[in-house]
């Protein structure tokens, strides 16, 4: 028998780390070659990793939620005929309970030749995602610490001499309670005695402490508040200042209900839960003791998105131009395509026509389909269009792209957009699908937003924001009519794209959306 350690592989694009999302196996489980053992999240997508060996899981070397560098061992698998049975995995380097130690040297050479090619095949396969560990793992670290124990001053443990010595010291503490010296003279002569009454004393009869005449807010002329001792005690427990409570009792007295109501109104409020109760972005966060904050580590997709956006915003000089467009004819085309037999079962939206308009405009203005190579100090013009479609997912924004989108007709482009967005929202977009994009479209209109100033996807020279389509009064052929109108916003890298080129490109996109027949003329 031999124990193999599986290092975290680079699943593509030169990624240096990944997060362990979920273990699919636990120590003692029997695994087969290519069986999915763990799900990881890289900076670009979720990936499931298969086992390169057959054997028994000896140990999980990292916990769920840990971020691990590429090349770090994450799991140990016992291979060969002497592998321990399920539930009896032996630690690395230790003999199995079911096998004498002397038998191990003979088993190891047999397992090693088989493991090597399997490991090589698994690392080259670009396999993906994470599993779920056992409840015992990390239990000691998570065990809740209990209190210090019983009160040390128990009567049985106090020596007689100590008890005798403590008795005289305790007497003065109890003495003031049966001697209500201060309240006694206050009742017959309220005005002179008021200053002698300390703040919030407990009256011996449980009644109201008498004070000079109160004003309309329940406060006495010298600032005292009318309240019974139980109410004062409740206010102290709740941390309520009686002077700030609005009294509703007879004669301006503060009641228990007044104190409770004031405490409820002063209590810090938190936002209501979201309607779908689906907050995966909070799942890995730590909630503060008062429940007012959740702190979520920045990693994986969100970390890579932030790095890319900062690099883009502070590297490429952004310029954004806008155009308001009458897209009534595009809406009519969408309605006709939905009734077309060739498009049966295909999702047809205005975004499809906008994407096609972008491809046509790129064909007319290929200079915008470029990137800036700062290291080589060169402009790289692309003779193909990998059209990126920005997709909002629970794990953050991703921008997969449709490879060679310029070669697709309208029907194949519709199918490609549908597949791309469905894969992205399921968190299954591969790193390769998000690489080598040349131009991006972001559909902010799906959220009811008119327009925005989009930030360039790194390595690209342009990005188009497609706004919400609304019916508005519009001057059409000299008359005011209700028309379908949208706004377009084009951001571009001013190192690569001059203002004239950006304006002409956006104008051509708008012409196709105003009248899709323009595409027939250009082609």
UniProtKB/TrEMBL annotation:
Q: Which family does it belong to?
A: Belongs to the 2-oxoacid dehydrogenase family.
- Domain Peripheral subunit-binding (PSBD) per the UniProt entry, residue ranges: 226-263
Bias class Low complexity marks the residues at: 148-174
All copies of the Lipoyl-binding domain together span: 3-78
Q: Report the EC number(s), separated by commas if there are several.
A: 2.3.1.-
* Keywords associated with the record: Acyltransferase, Lipoyl, Transferase
Annotated region (Disordered), positions in chain: 82-120, 136-215, 272-295
UniProt feature, compositional bias: Pro residues: 175-195
Q: Name one GO molecular function term.
A: lipoic acid binding
Q: Which cofactor does it need?
A: (R)-lipoate
Pfam families to which the protein is assigned, alphabetical? 2-oxoacid_dh, Biotin_lipoyl, E3_binding
Kindly provide the name given to this protein in its UniProt entry: Dihydrolipoamide acetyltransferase component of pyruvate dehydrogenase complex
An example of a Gene Ontology cellular component annotation for this protein is: cytoplasm
